[in-house]
Specification:
With 251 residues, this protein is α+β, with helices and mostly antiparallel strands. It contains eleven helices and six strands.
Length: 251
Amino acid sequence: MEANLAALAEQHAELDALLSSLDDPGWQRPTRCEGWTVADVVLHLAQTDEMALGSAQGRFAEQLARLTEGLAPPVDVDTGADAMVAHERGLPPDALLTRWRTGSAALRQQLAAADPHQRVDWVAGQLSIRTLATTRFSECWIHTGDVAGALGVSEEPSDRLEHIARLAWRTLPYAFARDGRGLAGPVALDLRAPSGARWHFVPEEEPATVIEGSGYELCLVAARRRAPDETSLHGSGPDVDSVLELVRTYA
């Protein structure tokens, strides 16, 4: 759990460094999230960090109700997130940055104080505090990339992405079930970290499918920020194409 929280804190610091000296026009730059500016992306992170804080405190439903008060029931998660952002869009940059900083710090503090094995409510169902921490790290990493891209800043991938790659691997059965498909058998990932180290995620049973290649690229594919055919990822077994199509950082 300590490593998960360290990764989350480092990611928050990376995003904060991008935002701390941003001028007003910078906050309004469009991002690769359709229809969202940099300010919208940060607002979304602030809102979802507040949801996660509520989850860790055992009041997820209450926090979600507060953020969605007056909004129509969403047809899916993405529609709901867009409606929440539209509902609060237009906050002054200083107030928005303070809100995100305050919420992210409170979330880290709450997660650190909780039992990492405790089950809590989240958008896709119940998960452990440890998985919630990794989910928040994953979302912050994804959107840090969105902000960096909008600002023309190049990111250096870090080995802390191992937590995201592991999350994507562990939630493959859920990703397949959500799409109405089944895996032919267990999946293993044999990935190369940005440092050159090896990330090897192996199931208890003999894997039917093995995916190999860049761990950074696997995280980008899982984040829906790069198409599988634009990467070096490859593999063997019956589910290679389906895994690369469906893998996501679900939790």
